[in-house]
Amino acid sequence: MLTTKLSKQGELYSYEMITQATGIWKVISGGSVIERSTFKIEDTILKTEEYHLIDNIRRKPRESKAIFSWSTNNVSGFYKDREFKIELDKNTLSRIILQLQIMHAKERQIEMNSFSVLDKDELKNIIIIKEENIKEANVPYGKYKAIKISHQTKDSERINSLWLAPELNFIPIKLTQTENGKTNFEANLTQLNY
Predict the structure, then answer these.
(1) DSSP assignments along 112-156, one per residue
(2) For the range 53-57, what are the long-range contacts, defined as Cβ-Cβ under 8 Å and sequence gap of 24 or more?
(3) Is this structure's pTM higher than 0.90?
(4) ∠ CA(92), CA(95), CA(191), 5° rounding?
(5) In this structure, are residues 161 and 149 in contact, taking their beta carbons and an 8 Å threshold?
(6) Which of 81, 148, 173, 187 could form a disulfide with 2 if both were Cys (CB 3.0 to 4.6 A apart)?
(7) Tens of pLDDT, residue by residue, the chain (194 residues)
(8) Backbone angles phi, psi at 191, to 5 degrees
(9) Contacting residues for 62 by C-beta, under 8 A, at least 6 apart
(10) β-bridge pairing 74-79 and 82-87
């Protein structure tokens, strides 16, 4: 089960994503993956301020924290027991803010083709690889016309796709991850609270 929450205090936004195992997977691997990030909006870019990951769904839990310092153009923090400090560029995001950035750009009809994303303790180049209009997508929350936008890390076989519903302000109604034509992960919108 995937739950997301977006809130705002002043100019600072906070986004949280919680993934919990369900069904038989809950018995096999209890726990959850919690990701949180704060950000500000400057023009067309979501500028990440902080990122925090707590993953206790695995046998060996892991944690990561990062502070994005735009005044010194670097991101620093730790992943597991490794400290890191990396130089930023203007399109650098935390992993979970990428989804919001794609939604933000699509809603404002801004063309964006690539981003740098902090993944663990390194920056990865993410490329928007395709976009297609879906006549109708059926999810537990209802039927909607959607725009399917896919992206992947350079030199990776994994493709992540978002089905954005224009009539719901481009909120994703479906998320998938595929690799070599097989689906690794799928989440469908079941509930939406404003």
Answers:
(1) --EEEEEETTEEEEEEEEEEEEEEEEEETTEEEEEEEEEEEETT-
(2) 56/31, 56/32, 57/19, 57/20, 57/21, 57/29, 57/30, 57/31, 57/32, 57/33
(3) no
(4) 130
(5) yes
(6) 187
(7) 788 999 999 999 999 999 876 655 555 556 889 999 999 999 889 999 999 999 988 778 899 999 999 999 999 999 988 999 999 988 899 999 999 999 999 888 888 889 999 998 999 999 998 888 989 999 999 999 999 999 999 889 999 999 999 999 999 999 999 999 899 888 899 999 87
(8) -150, 145
(9) 53, 55, 79, 80
(10) antiparallel
Structure tokens at 133: 């209009």
Contact assessment for residue 174 and residue 139, using Cβ atoms and an 8 Å cutoff: yes
CA-CA-CA-CA torsion sign (41, 108, 138, 94): negative
In the block, tokens 């991101």 appear at 75
Amino acid identity of residue 104, one-letter, is H
